[in-house]
Amino acid sequence: MEKCENPLKESGKLKQFLATIIINQLALSYGIVIGWPSPSAELLQSPSSPVGKPMTDDDISWLTAILCLSGSVMAVLTSIIPDKFSRKRLGYVLTVPMIIAWLLIMFATEHMYIYVSRALSGIAGAVTFFIIPNYVSEISCDSIRGMLASILIFSVNIGILMAYILGGIMSFRALPVVILALILLYIITFVFMPESPLYLVRRNRTHEAIRVLKWLKAGNSLEAERTLSHIQMQIKDSVSMKPAKFSDLVRDKATIKGIIIVVGLFIGQQLCGIFAMISNTELIFKMSGSSLTPNTSSIIVAAVQLLGSWLATLLVERAGRRLLILLSCAGMCVCHCTIGAFYYLLNSQYEVSAYSWIPVVALSTFMILFALGMGNGPIVVMSEIFSRDITSLASAISVSVSWITAFIMTKSFTDLVALLGLHGCFFLLATFCVCNFLFCFILLPETKGRLREDIVNELNGVRCTDQNDIKHIIGSNSVHAAHV
């Protein structure tokens, strides 16, 4: 396909970055939710449990399962939210279940408090993964869109690391106080961030939209006005001024292909084995002969994963989405095969003590490779591959599939271990990674630095050939600015 871009300097990147960082405080808070069970499980299962009788292993497994289950239900419900609420208003409403969830943990006296808290956290997580990609996509320039979208997973990983560290040094009742303070900080700072210009135009609030665009473009009135014109043109060209319907998901080839690609990416993200690697971290460190405590091992793994997501943020606009995802799938396959082979030899009574460092290296490499590609790749591609009028609905459907797949993997992994053995499970996960690689190699287009219209046209089978067509080039600053 002919390359149809000529990127020049754009205005307001720093302000777009600032807005992205502030809204991603939600993602950081959700990362703490994900990481919280790891340092808390030992206390909850001890005779001195703060919530009554000690929790069993099955009780602890439900802490993650309920999170995924409530998240999958809420992700489906977000499909009716998109154009009925403003992004900012939804960003504030989202803090209500988060605050209640941590208050329940702070005052928990029995298991039900914890389960309700996790259900509310799952609801908040589903909305977080809906609102952040959409908000960031609607305020960002094409040249930094991927980098800003990748900050979501980076923030989640910071939250997980914070949960491991704070959970290891703070009491069960004190940790929620710190997290509630972080939520309050988000509420205060988000006040100063702009509403989505796309939402304002849809609501015919043109004067507010131009004011927001001037802020996002660092006061460049010409770019703001051209961007406003382009958004108005996009909405006018949409199939309908009404919110997208489920029937719109099959309206053309590009939308159908986009749904298949993004849903496939999210399923692949869960099947690649991130849950298996995290849940076996302690065992892998023990096999290496490490004397580190389980919490210290978890902190090391979380730090490695954070490094990977940081590298992904740096490389996503340089190496491209497709290359990083393919590299991620191939590398994770090798890591699974390495650990699976080690387990197989260990179970077969081979002497492997001299090579006990290998699974730790494979685990660390896996975490970096996952974060580099499959960790944030689906989120980035999801924010770029759909027409603007269908993005919210398609994102809600895709994220709901991810949550459902995560729930299935969470509750079935123990049964798979009993059926196939631990080495068999890792070989199965390696097979899933091969399938992910082939799926992405065949279907996934490169979206780096391209206009949304170009990507949609490619999926529709239309090639960009007219270099003078405003919809297909990033020409002068004024035209480029039209593609927020």
- Biggest pleated-sheet summary: none
| Span of the ends, CA to CA | 23 Å
Beta-strand segment tally: 0
Based on CA atoms alone, the radius of gyration comes out at: 23 Å
> How many structural domains does the protein architecture include?
2
pLDDT below 50 for ≥5 consecutive residues: which ranges? 1-8, 465-484
Subcellular location: Cell membrane
Membrane topology: Multi-pass membrane protein
Transmembrane segments: 17-36, 60-78, 90-109, 115-136, 148-166, 172-193, 259-278, 298-316, 323-345, 357-381, 393-410, 416-444
Protein name: Facilitated trehalose transporter Tret1
Topology overview:
Blueprint: H1 13-23, H2 25-35, H3 37-44, H4 57-77, H5 87-93, H6 95-106, H7 111-139, H8 145-169, H9 175-190, H10 197-202, H11 206-216, H12 221-237, H13 253-271, H14 274-279, H15 281-287, H16 294-315, H17 321-347, H18 357-375, H19 377-382, H20 388-443, H21 452-459, H22 477-480
Helix pairs in contact: 1-7, 2-7, 2-8, 2-9, 4-7, 4-20, 6-7, 6-9, 7-8, 7-20, 8-16, 11-12, 13-20, 13-21, 15-18, 16-18, 17-18, 17-20
InterPro entries: MFS_dom (IPR020846), MFS_sugar_transport-like (IPR005828), MFS_trans_sf (IPR036259), MFS_Trehalose_Transporter (IPR050549)
Transmembrane segments: 17-36, 60-78, 90-109, 115-136, 148-166, 172-193, 259-278, 298-316, 323-345, 357-381, 393-410, 416-444
Protein name: Facilitated trehalose transporter Tret1
